[in-house]
Amino acid sequence: MSDVAEETRHRIETAGRAARAASKRLALLSRAEKDTALLTLADAVEAASATIVAANEEDLARGAAGGMSESLQDRLRMTPERVTQVAQALRDLAALPDPVGEVTRGNTLANGLQIKQVRVPMGVVGMIYEARPNVTVDAAGLGLKSGNAMILRGGSAAAATNAAIVEALRASYEQQELPADAVQLLDGGHDDVTALITARGLVDLVIPRGGAALIEAVVTGSSVPVIETGTGNVHVYVDRAADLDMALDITVNSKTHRPSVCNAAESLLVHADVAETFLPRVLTELAERGVVLHADERAAALAGGVATQPVTDEAWGTEFHGLEMSVGVVDSLDGAIAHIDGYSTHHTDCIVTEDRPAARTFAAQVDSAVVMINASTRFTDGGEFGFGAEIGISTQKLHARGPMALAELTTTKWIVDGDGQIR
Amino acid sequence: MSDVAEETRHRIETAGRAARAASKRLALLSRAEKDTALLTLADAVEAASATIVAANEEDLARGAAGGMSESLQDRLRMTPERVTQVAQALRDLAALPDPVGEVTRGNTLANGLQIKQVRVPMGVVGMIYEARPNVTVDAAGLGLKSGNAMILRGGSAAAATNAAIVEALRASYEQQELPADAVQLLDGGHDDVTALITARGLVDLVIPRGGAALIEAVVTGSSVPVIETGTGNVHVYVDRAADLDMALDITVNSKTHRPSVCNAAESLLVHADVAETFLPRVLTELAERGVVLHADERAAALAGGVATQPVTDEAWGTEFHGLEMSVGVVDSLDGAIAHIDGYSTHHTDCIVTEDRPAARTFAAQVDSAVVMINASTRFTDGGEFGFGAEIGISTQKLHARGPMALAELTTTKWIVDGDGQIR
User: Fold this and answer.
1) Main-chain phi, psi angles of B417, to 5 degrees
2) Which CATH superfamily is domain A234-383 in?
3) Nearest Cβ partner of B418 from A375, A414, A417?
4) Helix ranges restricted to H, B257-374
């Protein structure tokens, strides 16, 4: 902490106090006021499309000059069509129910006290994320709908794009006579992050969203509450009682549908009883789709001529973010569960089986945010779950686990209504 | 972190792994099995009563020799009657519903996927607390009922008492052929705490329960998830529209019913319109009960002859833990809310009023875990709320806010049940 310059700490504290003041106004907005504001923000983002795209071209040119990969450039790119999409996401948020004010528990006590637990905004939420600029708009919109002021720290690769987006949003807030500090963008160096995650009392929650190194740094360095998101070393286990056609579809979809994201599968475990039938089929299919295969000895022997390389302990523990997969044979359901227990990041793990007791045991014993039974791991997603939006996928156990959306950006407050009760 | 001896870190990691193994068995116990185990533990604690009382006498003698205050000795003391009481608390837990397995949300998606969110144990919970040995039994019982293995670090003042209690509990677990590592006691030095709160991956949650310095040290030093508990700078605001008889009862009860605990009031704010009538009455009553009064100039002038000392900024910010109170006059409801916003620890704050809009505004704008309307602040308590037990009172916003009991010791897991869905 002491290595953060006084100027930086002062700047972050100023931002935190401005966010706190804004959050007090946001907390008191009605659903109708928030939805109107979201629709107006959407229009403002679309109206700023040319500016945002021009700023994005700066970022892209700098990235290309610095040797940024094509796939990262694609994640970073904002075309006019993508600007329209992110504006639409704000309009979609307006259509969702307001999480604030929901009564989550309540009771009248024997002494006549009426107690109720009500959802209220967190207050000030910090978000630290990497390249994709659509996250900037999503976070601002989710923040407004849940009544929170957002302090955003995007990746330096998207600095100009994020600045253009946030400028458009803040100008719109001002025009609407709402507090512009509902969304603030930090554009300083790494010290900004350090100051943000140690701003106790000023920031109620920090959500890091990005690679494992970013998340580790935030979790270890923070003294404010943090929700870990994202890292997914995801397993598919094909049980002895699996429907093997279904298992083939689920494995291929889980691995190849969008291999760069956190809910893509990284490891395949096959029960020994079906390995001889299933492995040649699935490995051939995976190899045809360009998947590099790391196989244990038993799986390699059943690869049906497909080239594999020996799987290492490191490979079992790796989230590849691409077309690679670790493959192994297990002798039992317990063996699969023990393997998953050892290597999973507890994001999503899947069993394919027609056997009820096996499914029940797997669901009970695999300690992950999402346990899939006979479904692709790609379904771990706020949109797929019907949340209408997503701010990340929590892999921790405190507060939120799995896809996080509006409700997860709130806390609760107890309101106790009496007529003079004393103890 | 680096200043923890290798031996200590190794010992804590061993404890963490043993707890993890135990937690896997606890997570699969049925409610009936857990309730039977709780009743058996209760009998074991009662059977060890003489041993526990003898150990407690050691602790008390050491404390008295070291100059421990009478009130702290009283908190530490375990008589045969108190042993019976803590055993009864275990039996009471057996009568409560099992939080594990509760379905908290669920839905069938358009594609036929059946998703449900189910309460599951956290896994391994660390608890760091100070003198009262009944917390040792409560924590063990709450842990068992919620399916968690507990790693306990009690205060050194209660070392012998806690060791005797945990020995009895562990022996009972073994006799029942349940894992004794469901409850472990750390008895090393301060390094044990440091190692525990940085044991990422081994400990799912740490709950510090004690004074502000303990909580600050844990929150700042930890890299595992933490729930802050307890510190309560609690306010009573007497509105211009208060029933002044009710306000008198609530103020006196909130301050004097049990002044050492966190839900006792520390500050009294009185609206200027009723100050002249109310202050002489309430200050006289408080003074008669031995409350030392810190008053602002306007309150002092209306003290009706009661001696007061000038209130300082420090006094407004102090949780006295005893018979002292800060008193001031405010000109408006907004003034009261602003004062509370500046000084409250956001534990519990109370308004006394017969005015509906005032109550509604206070409840909406005071950002505390519990907002009381016309009721003593002493009602912020898991037992009073009907939770049947309490592990602490959270003053943070993440995961749990206000009194914490069984549900707050659980997390959730999504189980997604499909028949071959892919994206």
Assistant:
1) -115, 115
2) Aldehyde Dehydrogenase; Chain A, domain 2 (3.40.309.10)
3) A375
4) 272-288, 297-301, 313-316, 333-343, 356-365
Helix, strand, coil percent values for chain A (each to nearest 5): 45, 20, 30
Q: Does A28 contact B401 at a Cβ distance shorter than 8 Å?
A: no
pLDDT of residue B305 exceeding 50, the answer is yes
Residue B414 and residue A371: Cβ atoms within 8 Å?
yes
Compare CB distances from A374 to B120, B246, B420 and report the shortest one's residue.
B420
Please state, in angstroms and rounded to a whole number, the distance separating the CA atoms of residues B248 and B37: 47
For residues A305 and B37, what is the distance between their CA atoms, to the nearest angstrom?
55
Segment B89-123, tens digit of pLDDT: 999 999 999 999 999 999 999 999 999 999 999 99
Q: State whether B418 and A122 contact (CB < 8 Å).
A: no
Interval B362-403: pLDDT, tens: 999 999 999 999 999 999 999 899 888 789 999 989 999 999
The topology under which CATH files domain B234-379 is: Aldehyde Dehydrogenase; Chain A, domain 2 (3.40.309)
Nearest chain B residue to A245, by CA: B420
Q: Quote the mean pLDDT of chain B.
A: 95
Asked if B204's CB is within 8 angstroms of A397's CB, the reply is: yes
Q: Which residues of A142-168 are buried (b: 16+ CB within 10 A; e: fewer)?
A: bbbbbbbbbbbbbbebbbbbbbbbbbb
| CATH 3.40.605.10 holds for A6-228+398-417 | yes
Tell me how many degrees the CA angle A110-A115-A120 measures, rounded to the nearest 5. 170
Q: Do B369 and A414 touch (CB under 8 A)?
A: yes
Contacts of A32 (CB under 8 A, 6+ apart): none
Specify the pLDDT at position A228: 87
Mean pLDDT of the A211-216 span? 84
Q: A-chain residues within 8 Å CB-CB of B117?
A: 402
Fold of B6-228+397-417: Aldehyde Dehydrogenase; Chain A, domain 1 (3.40.605)
Average pLDDT over every residue of A60-66: 96
Cβ contact B419–A374 (<8 Å) = yes
Show residues of chain B in contact with A397, CB under 8 Å. 122-123, 204-205, 225, 411
CB pair distance less than 8 Å for A415 and B371: yes
| pLDDT for the residue numbered B1 | 44
Interface test mutation site (partner A, options B29, B116, B204, B367, max chain A beta carbons within 10 A): B367
- Do B414 and A402 lie within an 8 Å CB cutoff? yes
Residue B2: per-residue pLDDT: 47
Domain boundaries, chain B: 6-228+397-417, 234-379
Q: Which of A248, A252, A414 to mutate to test the interface with B (most CBs of B within 10 A)?
A: A414
For residue B342, the chain A residues in CB contact (below 8 A) are none
Q: How far is CA A365 from CA A29, B35, B110, B121, B145, in A?
A: 43, 21, 28, 11, 18
- Under an 8 A CB cutoff, do A249 and B370 touch? no
Nearest Cβ partner for B413 among A117, A371, A399: A371
Percent of chain B residues topping a pLDDT of 70: 99
Task: Flag whether pLDDT at A329 surpasses 90.
Answer: yes
SS3 A194: helix
